[in-house]
Amino acid sequence: MDTLFIQTNGDNMNSVPVHVTAEVKKDSEYTWEVELTAPEKEGRYQCYFRMVTGNNYRFGHKVWADIFVQAPQVAEASIPKEEVKVEEPEKMECDFIKEAKAEADKPADYPVIEAEESADKAGAEDSALDVSIRSSGLVTPKELYNNKIEDS
Fold this sequence. Notes:
Elements: E1 3-10, E2 18-19, E3 43-53, E4 58-69, H1 96-105, H2 128-136, H3 141-151
Antiparallel strand pairs: 1-2, 1-3, 3-4
C-alpha cells in the first residue's frame, strides 16, 4: 500500500510529500524528514501534517511544525555611527480667530446670495423639540464660532 506523509493545512512552507518506504509494524517507530522553506516575512508560522494512504484515507496523529522567522541580526560594529545635528523647528503661533477675521475682511470673489429660511418641512410648524431647543438657549459650535467672529 502506498503511504505518504503530507501537509494537510496551515501556512504554506512548500513542503514536499514524503513516501513511507518501509513497512511499519504496530508499536514500532519510523523516522523521516520533511523539507520546509521558511517564509521571508517575519512572524510565527505553523503547518500541519498527517499520514495518508493511496486512497486518501488519513490516519494517525496530526503532526505540526511551528517556526518563528526573525530578521537577520546586524552587527553593531559594522554600522558606522555618525553624529546627526537636529535643528529646532521654527515656532509658529496660530490664532484661528484672527485668521478668520482677516479672511472675512477680504473682498469676496463670488456674489453673495442671501439664504432663505429652510423649507425642508414643507410648511409644517416647528415640532415641540425644535421649540424646546430654541427656547433653551442652546447653540451649535458653528453658531458659537460665528457669534465670536461677529462680536470681534
